[in-house]
Amino acid sequence: MTTGAIVGIVLGIIGALIIGGLLGFYIATKVFKKQMKENPPITADQIRAMYAQMGRKPSEQQVNQIMHMMKNQGKK
Fold first, then answer.
1. Are 3 and 40 in contact (CB under 8 A)?
2. CB of 74 within 8 A of CB of 36?
């Protein structure tokens, strides 16, 4: 093998690793965002329980407002 062939193989391997890493990051990010959208980290019942621990009874409007804020934050 010549030096040019070896350099070409090494550069090809490095290029493939970089492209694979970028592609893997992109796919993992998309899957994570999709799962967070389908399964939010907090539910309305958890919000009510949190308010109850603080000694307050939340209205439905407050619960819906917090859920809406959580949903909008997931879109960023």
1. no
2. yes
